[in-house]
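User: Please go through the entry that follows and flag anything odd:
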Amino acid sequence: MLILEEFGILVVHESPGVGQNLWNHPQSSVSFRVNDRVDLTSNAGALRFALRVTSEAPSHPNDVMLHSLSVFNIMTGETLPEQTARIACALELPDGSGWVRLASADPAVQPSINYRYFRDDNDIRRMRDAVRLACSIVDSPAYEGVSDGRITPTDEALSTDEALDWWIRTSIGSSRHVSGTCKIG
């Protein structure tokens, strides 16, 4: 039975691909305490950076991006604790995709969305590598004057692939760049 028919909606043209192939960039963030000598508000422009990484050349060029996140998230209203910063680890080219479906015949009801993050083993492996890279940056001598220590993920979460996978799956967010679901043309 077609999804539209489940909700009593007349099917004018069957197109089973509609709603499939939903893409988004899964993102987890490494957080750290910022040294009290660093004023997070004095040079906001210096906080804007991005590092593009190729995890699997040539099949996935520039597939991972590490970037700073501001102290205030304009989309959610979330404010970080004082003297805290984050490096976001975003998987820009995931191998897996999700779906969007009707939840009701009422157009005012939000649809059902499943990004299906990390259904592909290659995606969780690349995210794991990205988080470890961000942690190595925060824990590096170059950050000694900035960082007073990593908050998340903890050393315990970094201790094994399985522990880090669990941390990633429970801390995952969206980069809010949703696309796909219906081919054009």
In short: The chain is about 20% helix and 25% strand. The mean pLDDT is 86. The CA atoms of residues 156 and 163 lie 7 Å apart.
